[in-house]
Amino acid sequence: MSYDDTNIFAKILRGEIPCHRVYEDADTLAFMDVMPQSKGHLLVIPKAPSRNILDADPAVLAKVMPIVQKLAVAAKDAFDADGITVTQFNEPAAGQTVYHLHFHIIPRYEGAALKPHTGAMEDHGVLAALAEQVKAAL
């Protein structure tokens, strides 16, 4: 399958849909997940188009992975998390629903289950405040 530039992350990259940005450089964008599974759940995406890790240019992966690590550390610090889950899905059978390569960084807390990743969107004021916490930890 080929890359579809009408996906929601492509629209975010073009500025057609707003997001709560926490980090941006020439190659990468990170922002709060609007349907968080845990307090501080954020997403990291490369700016280069690729459907998922299966078709990503290795040079793109080489640029995005240090940012995933940097933001995982920042999220753990910002939210005093006990741990961090990093997930990345490839194709429908694996749970991928947005077809632009992306990494979930999910702060985890001892004894707290993840919330379902459903259509329930978080309040934008809450997301803005959480984004500021990550930025401060960077």
- Number of DSSP-assigned strands: 5
CATH architecture: 2-Layer Sandwich
Shape: globular
**Average pLDDT rating:** 96
Radius of gyration: 14 Å
Characterize the biggest β-sheet.
5 strands, antiparallel
Q: What's the end-to-end separation, in Å?
A: 36 Å
Unreliable runs = none
CATH topology-level name: HIT family, subunit A
SSE order: HEEEHEEH
Q: How many domain units? A: 1
Q: Structural class, from helix and strand content?
A: alpha+beta
Walk me through this protein's architecture:
- There is one protein chain.
- The protein is of the alpha+beta class.
- It has one domain (8-137): HIT family, subunit A.
- The chain is built from 3 helices and 5 strands.
- It has helices spanning 8-13, 58-78, 124-137, and strands at 21-24, 28-32, 42-46, 83-87, 103-108.
- Helix 2 crosses helix 3 (124-137).
- 31% of the residues are buried.
